[in-house]
Amino acid sequence: MTTGTLAEHLAKVDMFSGLDHATLDALVQRGTTMTFPPGRVVAEQDRDGSTFHLVLDGSAAVAVNGVERGTLSEGNYFGEMSLIDGAPRSATVVAGADGLKTFTVSQLSFSELLDEQPHVARQLCESLVERIRKIEAARAE
Ligand code: CMP
Fold this sequence. Notes:
Layout: H1 3-11, H2 21-30, E1 32-36, E2 41-43, E3 52-64, E4 67-72, E5 77-78, H3 80-85, E6 92-105, H4 107-116, H5 118-140
Antiparallel strand pairs: 1-6, 2-6, 3-4, 3-5, 3-6
Helix pairs in contact: 1-2, 4-5
Bound molecules: adenosine-3',5'-cyclic-monophosphate.
């Protein structure tokens, strides 16, 4: 995927949709794409890790304490939690049956983006709140 195509792709993701072209291009320059074969563990619960992943293609399964918590597909992201607080991974993320392609950004680059772009930080907060609400609703059932 060329820089321009990847920037266009990122612009369609809610979290990055408010960024101007120059910022998107800079983000693309600071990240890299990674490809994982089916079944590859991309993040392992309780292990260190600080990379942010945006799913570009394929899928990934999320599990907490061995319990499936959902499937991530194009436009979803993971890895933001350890990146924010420096704690070990909160879940295990495994590449799906067709493999997984992600756009990854290091902790430093992503932290700088959050400091500089309130829109990105707000979108991230909204997704975290949504996840908390879902977990609480499931607990109440
Ligand atoms: P992190 O803790 O860095 O690494 C594992 C990732 O899985 C985590 O960030 C979130 O992005 C994601 N994750 C954790 N818990 C859940 C959940 N309950 N549902 C969906 N994704 C999750």
